What we know:
Layout: E1 2-8, H1 12-22, E2 32-33, E3 37-41, E4 52-56, H2 67-71, H3 77-82, E5 88-90, E6 93-96, H4 106-116, E7 122-126, E8 139-144, E9 149-154, E10 157-162, H5 173-182, E11 188-192, H6 198-206, E12 211-216, H7 219-231, E13 237-241, H8 244-253, E14 258-263, H9 273-278, E15 280-293, H10 298-310, E16 315-327, E17 330-339
Parallel strand pairs: 6-7, 11-12, 11-14, 12-13, 14-15
Antiparallel strand pairs: 1-3, 1-4, 2-3, 5-6, 7-8, 9-10, 15-17, 16-17
Helix pairs in contact: 5-6
Residues 133-135, 167-169, 172, 193-195, 198-199, 215-218, 221, 243-245, 264-265 line the site of S-adenosylmethionine.
Amino acid sequence: MTLCVKVPFKDAERVKRLLERKGVLDPLHRYDKDERHIYFPITRKLEEPGLIYAKRVLPAAKKKNTLREQLRSQLTPEELAHVKSSYDIVGSIAIIEVDKALAQRERIIANAVLAMNKHVSTVLKKEGGHEGELRLQKMRCLAGKDTRETIVKENGVTLLVDVERVYYSVRSATERKRIAQLVKKGERVLVMFSGAAPYPCVIAKLAAPAHVVGIELNKRGHELGIENVRRNKLDTVTLMHGDVRELVPLLAQQGETFDRIVMPLPHTGHDFLDEALSVARTGTVVHLYDFEHEDEFEKGAEKARAGAARNGKRAEILGIVACGQHSPRVYRICVDFKVL
Ligand SMILES: C[S@@+](CC[C@H](N)C(=O)[O-])C[C@H]1O[C@@H](n2cnc3c(N)ncnc32)[C@H](O)[C@@H]1O
């Protein structure tokens, strides 16, 4: 049985518009009729006076393929043109962006996303970009269960993530696999800026390193990382909580060196090359992430060369890989280089 609003035919259009405006139309079901009434499926009761509620078996909505198609009956053509049809799904959470012009329609859009994805139980809206040292993004729940935590499966590991309190991007999963596939048996790997430990876990799972060390400043990120290492039974991973600027010099003092150093902090990662190179040896491979315009990838290589020169070393560029899009014509790139 589905909760419905029972409306005489003459009021149907007015009430339908009200339900749409409030974002309570249940997109999983279709409306139904008897001789004098129409029954609109809803997700919750409203405090509006004069509405009559009923429970009724309603036909399931036909599955629509795209978000715009799903919304066709609920938004005007002008509104549909503003709908951003792509969104991320992180475990059971869908993360959407809503154009300012559709602020009044955001719950309708969120309910449509919920209806289209049977494994999604939460729809969050991005409330800005990644900000601050911890690269966090504010989110607001528009539909479903109000949570930020979910379990993600990627590259053979299961990760507990918190999409608001700890940076995690599903879009980097392919890049993590690429790095893991480069790791040779017995390597010692340092992952600076390890977050909830997706890189350390994927590397330890897919490759056979001797040891993977991850360092993360965000306390909650470190805690989730510890949980993820435990959950995937990865005994070659050690995670450290703190600032790379303080912890890497301590590793250097202890005479630690690494065969491979991963630096997934695109905006400012190059500022940490002095620390990275203090635990590199001749032949260490560094993966330095950066954001660059499509015509200027070489600038990323320049940053690597400058960092190496500053430390009395040379950087042999092994390759530059585009591994995500940041904004129109600006890409997330990875500069792979060997320390000489
Ligand atoms: C872009 S995120 C990448 C997180 C993770 N590696 C991933 O791929 O999901 C960068 C991470 O670096 C952390 N971070 C920023 N500055 C740091 C510092 N000085 N020392 C350690 N971690 C830092 C942030 O908290 C954030 O979790």
